[in-house]
TrEMBL record, chain A:
Keywords of the record: ATP-binding, Nucleotide-binding, Transport
UniProt entry tagged with the keyword Chaperone: no
Protein name, as recorded: ABC transporter domain-containing protein
InterPro entries attached to this UniProt entry: AAA+_ATPase, ABC_transp_ATP-bind, ABC_transporter-like_ATP-bd, ABC_transporter-like_CS, Oligopep_ABC_C, P-loop_NTPase
Gene Ontology molecular-function annotations: ATP binding; ATP hydrolysis activity
GO terms classed as biological process: peptide transport; transmembrane transport
ABC transporter domain: residues covered: 5-256
Pfam families assigned to the protein according to its UniProt record, in alphabetical order: ABC_tran (PF00005), oligo_HPY (PF08352)
TrEMBL record, chain B:
GO terms for cellular component: plasma membrane
Gene3D superfamilies hit by this protein: MetI-like (1.10.3720.10)
Top-level taxon of origin: Bacteria
Family (UniProt): Belongs to the binding-protein-dependent transport system permease family.
Main localization of the protein described in the UniProt heading: membrane
Protein name: Peptide ABC transporter permease
Residue ranges of every copy of the ABC transmembrane type-1 domain listed in the record: 87-277
Compartment(s) where it occurs, according to its Swiss-Prot or TrEMBL record: Cell membrane
Protein's membrane topology: Multi-pass membrane protein
Keywords attached to this entry: Cell membrane, Membrane, Transmembrane, Transmembrane helix, Transport
Transmembrane portions of the chain: 21-43, 90-115, 122-144, 150-169, 199-220, 255-277
Species for this entry: Ammoniphilus oxalaticus
Record-level GO BP terms: transmembrane transport
Pfam families assigned to the protein according to its UniProt record, in alphabetical order: BPD_transp_1 (PF00528), OppC_N (PF12911)
UniProtKB/TrEMBL annotation, chain D:
Organism listed in the record: Ammoniphilus oxalaticus
Lineage of the organism: Bacteria, Bacillati, Bacillota, Bacilli, Bacillales
The protein's name: Peptide ABC transporter permease
Bilayer-spanning residue ranges: 12-30, 95-122, 143-162, 190-208, 244-270, 290-316
Top-level taxon: Bacteria
Keywords: Cell membrane, Membrane, Transmembrane, Transmembrane helix, Transport
CC per GO annotation: plasma membrane
From TrEMBL, chain E:
Membrane topology reported for the UniProt record: Peripheral membrane protein
Domain of life, per lineage: Bacteria
GO biological process: peptide transport
Domain ABC transporter residues, every copy: 2-250
The organism of origin for this protein: Ammoniphilus oxalaticus
NCBIfam families: oligo_HPY (TIGR01727)
Cellular compartments annotated: Cell membrane
Membrane-traversing stretches: none
InterPro entries: AAA+_ATPase, ABC_Ni/Peptide_Import, ABC_transporter-like_ATP-bd, ABC_transporter-like_CS, Oligopep_ABC_C, P-loop_NTPase
Upper taxonomic lineage: Bacteria, Bacillati, Bacillota, Bacilli, Bacillales
Keywords: ATP-binding, Cell membrane, Ion transport, Membrane, Nickel, Nickel transport, Nucleotide-binding, Translocase, Transport
SUPFAM superfamilies: P-loop containing nucleoside triphosphate hydrolases
UniProt-recorded name of the protein: Nickel import system ATP-binding protein NikD
Reactions catalysed, as given in the entry: Ni(2+)(out) + ATP + H2O = Ni(2+)(in) + ADP + phosphate + H(+)
Amino acid sequence: MGPLLELKQITKQYPTSFPLRGKGKGVEALRDVSLSIKEGEIIGLVGQSGSGKSTLGEIILQLEKPTEGHVMFAGKNLSTVSKKARKQMRRDIQMVFQDPYETMHPSFTVFDTIAEPLRIHGWRQKEQIRKKVYETLAQVELSPVEDYINRFPHELSGGQLQRIAIARAIVLNPRFLVADEPVSMLDVSIRAGILHLLKQLNDTFKLTMLYISHDLSTVSYLCDRLAVLYKGEIVEIGPTKKVLESPQHPYTQALLTAIPMFPHNRSVIV
Amino acid sequence: MITVRKASKNQLVRRILKDPFALIGLILLLLFLIVAIFANFLAPYDAYEIIRAENGEIKKLYTPSIEHPFGTTNIGRDLFSQVIFGTRTAISVGFIAALLVTFVGVMVGLISGYFGGITDIILMRIVDVFYAIPFIPFVIVLVALLKPSIWNVILAISLLSWRTVARIIRSQVLTIAKRPFIKAAIVSGAGHLRIMVRYILPSVLPIALLEMAFIVNSAIMTEASVSFLGLGDPNVISWGQILHTNFLTGHSQTAWWWVAPPGIAIVLLLLSIFFLTRSFEEVIHPRLKRRS
Amino acid sequence: SSEKGEKVADDELGELAPSFTVLTATPEENYITYEAMKMISEEWKKLGVDVTVQPMDFHAKVDRLWAPDERDYDAFTIGYSGRVERLDPDMFTYTIFHSSLAGPGGSNTTGLVNEEYDKYSKDQRHEMDPEKRRDLVFKAQEILADEVPVVSLYSNTLVHAYNHERFNELPAMAGEGVFNEWMPTEAEPLTDDKWLKIGGIQDLDTLNPIAAKSVFDWRQLRQIYDKLVRLNPQIEPVPSAAANWEVVNDKTIDVFLRPNMTFHDGKPVTVEDVKFSYEFMDKWNDGYLQAFLEPIESIELLGGETIRFHLTEAYAPFITATLTQIPILPKHIWEKVEGNPLDFANLEPIGSGPFVFEYWRRGEELKVSRNPDYYNNINVDGYIYRVYGQPEAVLSALRTGEIDTHADRLISAHIQQAENIEHISTIEVADIGFEYLGLNLRRAPFDNEAFRQALALTIDYDTILDVYLEGYGTKGGPGLVIQPANEFWHNPAAHQPIFDPKKARDILREAGYNWDSEGKLRLPVN
Amino acid sequence: MVSFIVKRFIQSLITLLVVATLIFFMFRLMPGDMTAALIDPSIAKEARDQVIKQYGLDQSIWSQYLIFLQDLLKFDFGQSFYYKRSTLAVLSDKFLATIILMFSSMVVAYGFGVFGGALIAWKRGSFLDLFWTTFALIFRSAPTFWVGLLAIYVFSVTLGWLPHSGIRSPGYDAKHSFDLFFSVDFLRHLLLPTIVTGLFYLATPLLLMRNTMIDVLGEDYIEMARAKGLRERRILFHHAMRNALLPVVTAGALFIGSALGGQVMIEYVFSWPGLGQEMILAAQRHDYPLAQTAFLLMAGLIMMMNVFADIIYAFLDPRITYK
Amino acid sequence: MLQVNDLYVNYKRDNNKAYVIQNLSMKIRRGERLGLVGESGCGKTTLARALLRLLSPNAVISSGQILLDGEDLLALSKEQMRKKRGKEIAFIPQNAMNALNPVHRIRDQLIELLYEHTSMPKKKALETIRAAIHSVDIHERHLNDYPHQLSGGMKQRIIIAMTLMLQPTLIIADEPTTALDVIVQQNILHKLRTMQEALNSALLFISHDLALVSSFCHTIVVMYGGKIMETCRMEQFLARASHPYSIGLQYASPNFSMNGEALITIPGMPPKLTELSKGCQFHERCPFVSDKCVSVEPKLQQIAEGHKVACHYVSEAQRFRREAKEIATWERRR
Ligand SMILES: Nc1ncnc2c1ncn2[C@@H]1O[C@H](COP(=O)(O)OP(=O)(O)OP(=O)(O)O)[C@@H](O)[C@H]1O
Ligand SMILES: Nc1ncnc2c1ncn2[C@@H]1O[C@H](COP(=O)(O)OP(=O)(O)OP(=O)(O)O)[C@@H](O)[C@H]1O
Ligand SMILES: [Mg+2]
Ligand SMILES: [Mg+2]
């Protein structure tokens, strides 16, 4: 069985729109990135800010078109699929974004937010929709469901919102999930919950995931494999443990030392 | 960043109740609306009726009295009735023009901002062209061209005013379209139409509503100006026209009761809308909130 | 149902009187006419006539009335302004009613065709004896009163104000009021500031007397350019640049030029200049002066100061209209003008008139100073003609003392206000211009004389005068074109401004009209 | 920078051309043609035909349009039907009068608006804030012509402090043309219309400035400036206002368009011999070429102001680079 | 050096009041780096602003004392306070991206600080700012740049250079690196530390990143719901954190242990602060809650030298630390 998702030599150039980036040549956000992800795997993508992590995620979701290269999903080239297949693709690949508040339409209730993908994909029966929404909310461990169903985003905490964002992403039973820094905006005290949840989804539904982060510590917690992106290129890739324990690329090494860590012996070395 | 919240309805009500100016604005506006709707019942005379005293003499230039609260014109027309019917004209011109303008402006702004690219460029160049046209002269010429009628005044106002709305909505759409919840919608598989109608439109609506209020005012003002120049609809009484007739017949420095009421009516109506919009603005743009 | 109570079924009656539209003035163009026509139409509706009143932009209306191809209108209101040359009855009797001009584009807008009338109106043109001519004009007026192709609605009283602290009473003239040809030269300053300031709402359009076509141009240019003859305040022709003249016969007139006159640039005024001016004007002018020049066959210089005009036919208005209108141009300047002299801006006009041009700031003001070499005495140092946006501003200027007098008549409402100003006095004179209702006789229902007479009886002349004009004017009447102010030519016996709707019904009934059960007017059956 | 200006300029020219086209066709559709003005019972039909021919009115509208475009490229705006002179010559003085009034009232509106807006944002919620916003909104709600008439009545007619109309006293003898527009006498005439117009437009910059200022005052760099221990005045003028000015400038350029058009009313009431006055007259007289040119001049002016505002903007905001 | 006594701050809102800082007392000594951690919205920034007296107009310091070298800042006139800001008290804001005025050159923004607080001649001032930005490894040609021409890290370094230029005795850094990359963050903290040590000034370091604080500061203050929950020296905190919230925070931080221990989540939401609470601020989320916690407010009590905790059950801290490792413990409160 081949990989579920395959990135083939993806290059992405943004036309320059920033004054200082020089004329003519665009910003090269990604250069020749290839990556394949097996079904059921969680792969982590780390890298410095601006290294192209989000861009990669957006290319997978067809929110951006790669300048070169293409994305293969379940054996199909996503940039050439038919309209119908594209709609199917929208069910199969989902995304969770960094800022949970910003990804919710401010005037949609929780129910609307989660029911929206169902409606888009042709669910008509009210009762069915309701059932599915409740079920999904339960899956993301928001209970009692009734408490949340009629709330607006600003009436919820960040952690709750992120759960709802995940609920929205999984309500269509996708096969692949891109999570772009889903916890970086959240307080430490509630981060773990979201990470647990993602892990759980992976376990129970074999949901394949691309987990994007700049924070090595959460990656190590969640991911099977780890890819390090540096200036638009994948400089290192391998099983998480291996990469963390013996980083090969200087950037990975620098990254590792830069992470603020509790002093190992738990006594201060100030 | 402007955000729409369902709760803002309550917030708006609360704001208005708390802000004495907005409250005054609301009461005034409601008053004007009532006057406009029930003009037929409220006006004691027809706007153009020439009123004669019992001895058959025409009541020329009567100063205000109980019978004629705003006095009469030089040929015995009841100014109170004229001002009341003028209210109806002002309100209808204002609101009809504003609805038209807002509709067109929002459509253009939405399409331009959402699709971007060449569509945006073309639409925005058209907006530029319309921005280069001086407003009142255009209305004057167009109205003269199409015959002075109230509908043509509305049309002329609308033909130009949408430029502002389109521009503002477009920039609003641009910021909203960049917001992650639009991306989230795309990811969920929503099409262009759905995104525009269900996601972007509600978010720009408050701004559109705000702009609409300004258009109401500018339309009323423009109609008054055009009518004051004598280019308005001669068969529809309006505040501007009352002042025009006064000026034309040379009574502007003597018959104060003829000059003051329509002018004050314009001031009050526009002011009431301004006061309301200010409260509204504070709700949709919370930073403006007075911190007391 | 008829008044006598006889039941006549509707279908036995004649056809419904055709509905018609009156093209009238917009309130801005003429508020009084606009309101008056509104009132009149109400009266007509009571008479059972289906009438629509349509205010129409002046230009569009003129376009329609004088359209070169067809006469597409039912009735209209319009006015003639009281220019001085219109004191001569020719225009009001011949030009606008003679049947030869009734075709498309012609000036006979009502389409009056009446042989007897044609004869009188034509003959008066050629009658050089004023008394005899007057008889003819009187006859013509009687026919007009009967035929009612037009109903005069009213004529204004010209009221002007002046600052009596700065100037002695200013001379007024019928038709022109205070800002007439004589006023600037005759005004007597009472203070040391001898500059006369005149306000007006109309700027002149050009300084070129050939291209000039509006009264507003002429009122100024005639002070710079002298003319052979002028009409005095009593409307009699008096010598101006001409020392005298002599009617040799019906077709020959000799004019004797006043000696020792100079242009403002110091060059002498010669008979050559006069001949040149008339010929030059004839050649180029395409405005209304043309009509006055047409009868001239040739101009002969008899030596010395004598100029002889040969006419193609006897032309009664020659002295009062032609000689009083044509400006004397300096030949040495105008013969050098290249290209079409109509396009010549003439930014520094040189004439031989009482005032010397100083400057003109378009839209703002014109300044002229006294010509010290002028043959008549002038009391002021000069005058400034100042342009304002609207009458209101003129009144304010009078009030603040910014101007001493003004060119356009005061609107009714301003008269009282002006009189209340301490330093202001007013002068009233009658106008010879008038506003009228014109009926297109070519079309039903106006093709019936009785109908027209009846209409004339439904006009409330009193209300128009008392309310709309606030008393400042004179009443109109059926067929009234030569106004009472034009005392010599006006036939007081001809016209009766009567408001009597009942009589109107009687006339209609007598003429076979009837009313149906709904009160609508039905045409006579024949 | 230069290429940016050139580019904007060319863009403006194209816009102007479109505006010109729009205006051209608009005027051709007017009922009643200009020859109506010439009609007099005594004028010959031939004379009228001649005029029609002279102005090419007998040709098809498309060929008229072509001629119009050609002339435009030659900078020939045509002859006024009414004045029989080049329209540009007729309008040149008026243009100046309009521009001066526009600028002076914009200076008043923007001067008071920008500083006042900054001040009331600084003291928002205070009586001062309430007073100024209400004051500005009252004047924004009152038609200029109405306020103008009242002002004339009070300050000119009753109190006699200022002239009631026109741009110079009658008989004002200018020593040179500069004197015509910059004398005390002229300034006295300018004062009342300027104030009335300025007051009307005051609300726009005032409230816009107030709002953006409030936004700016919430920005982190203002907090930083405070934390640096800078004086309030320096924070207000040096840090906050400079930034708040940016959107106000942009809005100002767009706003000129409606302001310029709205000035028509003031010119009318104050007998100010400007473009607006002339344009109303021209429209009434069906003098297309003149109205057209007036329109184009206004449009041109608006476009110029837009380019100008862009340049100022770029000057004020270093983040803008010319592309 | 800096001593805060019984500080209360509240915000007036449209229709209620938020008691954001309650009964807060703390101390920083010269040369000391004190880390202030706490959840978003617990009042960290408010405290920083209160120290600078830069609170928004609707905030009220209802009581308390802020003593800087024995002088009560709250008693100073506005003008006196202004003179202290920037000179004696430096403030490094969270968001360097926006803390520099976009329309002025870097040089002007640096130099105005000198002009404001000193009477330095221009030449000297230029020298000073040059030296200042050299000290944070930025080339002096950037002095002529506008902020948008610099990267976020550079801007943050410039701000550090700027605020430390006048050698303040107290530095308040409000999450100075949150918006930055880890590598950049490391670099900047290094700079900050060097300079602070050189100046021997006190540093109040605000952050929500426990790992960062633990490796950077001498002492720590854990704040929750406007109150101090625990304060102690860092080694005490790492070894014997005693407040359930502190403990929870530790086990929720992935950096705390890379050994695959399950991370915990503190369920629930932070308190709303609109009412003065009766009991412990944390009781709603605390897995070890008792009735007493709900009704009686625990006092901040000293349990060891320099170690204070606001919990009724400090004696059971040992058990708390053990049980808190387990996810199940925290699940109890869902
Ligand atoms: N729409 C765009 N237009 C132009 N350039 C862009 C656009 N989006 C991103 N970039 C540029 O592409 C590069 C990669 O951006 P991207 O957002 O993918 O980085 P990232 O790794 O997700 O960073 P972060 O950790 O800050 O989210 C950056 O240099 C960015 O400035
Ligand atoms: N001006 C204000 N008016 C009313 N409430 C405010 C104001 N500023 C802050 N608050 C409230 O005070 C509380 C504490 O805010 P503060 O900014 O001090 O938190 P913080 O700990 O710095 O949070 P973060 O980690 O998100 O920066 C929050 O609940 C906030 O909503
Ligand atoms: Mg990213
Ligand atoms: Mg904070």
